[in-house]
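Please, structure for the following, as tokens.
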Amino acid sequence: MIALLIILIAWAVLMQFTLKQMIFKGRYEYSIFFLMLFLPFYTTILTLTYQVTGSPIAVNFFQYQKEFIVLLGLMGFVAYQNNLNDYPWRLHVVDKLFLAFIALAFLFLLLPIGEATFLNRALYYKNLLIPAMVYFIGRNSNFSQVDYQKFFTIIFSIAIAAFLVNVFESLIDTHLQSLTGYARYNLDLQDIEASGHFGLTWTFETSAVTKRLASFFSDPLELASSILLGFSAGLIFFLTSDRRDWMLPTVVMATSFASLLFAASRAAFLAFFVMIFFIALVFRLYKLILTGAAGLMLFVVYVLFFASEDFYYFVVDTLTFQSTSSVGHVIEWVLALDSMVSNPLGIGLGMSGNVGAVDEEFRIGGENQFLIYGVQLGWLGMILYILMLYYAVKVSLRVFRQSENVMVARVGFVAAAVKVGMLLPLFTANAEVYAYVAWTSWWMVGHSVMAYQKIAYPKLALS
């Protein structure tokens, strides 16, 4: 009860501040601050609310806060434009790809394709549309230097707070989710029975039956993906700040990496090193690349000659896709690819993935974001999504290299680094449902596109 009371007070303060800025001051851009402070705790808030109240209505009140704020931000943009006819509708390739992707999904919403009901299709379409709206808000967010500072301060705070909760979980040797009513919430409202040795889901443990911690995120996989945001933000501040300001970004990087270890996600761990390799290429840090290669060789030597037998077979089974988790991924990929070959134009919305709008009875595939879109929207939908990611990284890197505003350049850098770092998690999970990292990074991509348009067309006041 005390925990829920604290949540209610924090929510009330955050909502009051957000509404004041958005409604009375016309700062629709501030919707991103609410989302960044709300989304990491989203599942914890819902499970605690249900544990204390037992009311689905109370859960729904918090459940739709994120959509409410995004819609309010979009309405604020329209309301506070002096004249929409004067708005410079100059579209970048990322804008066009996003519009094409959403339009294709809307077509599948209207057409009676697949076994999913219209309600489930509508709910799934909502899950696609909201991130597009967040991108659009980022595309039109005019931040001051103070606003940028607030933005990165939130990212730093989330990274450090997640680590501190991980430490708490480790000290009491208990998942936070075991204390918040996670299993009861899943059973009663999501129709998901508890599984695994810790009474949660299999995601919360390794194949060696050790705990994988999630902090206040929904599960360890979301935590592991979200730390990419904190680490890349800490790193760019470390590389672009005065050397006497090294302490905070170093702490953020260290706590982010520690949370990655607590989460024990193999895909995210590999993704972390892919992101580091990408960053080394961007900064031409060839010594870092050589150091990483040497570290990899040392790891191979350790596994072959010094590691315990359990760890040796753990690594081998992972690389050869013989572990239970890896085999599960492969099976899901094969089913999805078979569906795409049989139905290249797609089988309809709500037919793949691991979100609530997908009926388990009809689900095909679900552990690869690219294939999830391919199953539902066909090869065209998957290709559009891949092109969106490619051009998102490309334009964000251009902004990082060309912007004269250090804060804008940092946004571009983090957007590119996170989208590259998320590639591996996208191959093994429905990673676009990790709202904190997914929505925040799409906002950053949108903001980078706006910055690039200003660089390319300096005569435009807005673009």
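The chain is about 70% helix and 0% strand. The chain has a mean pLDDT of 86.
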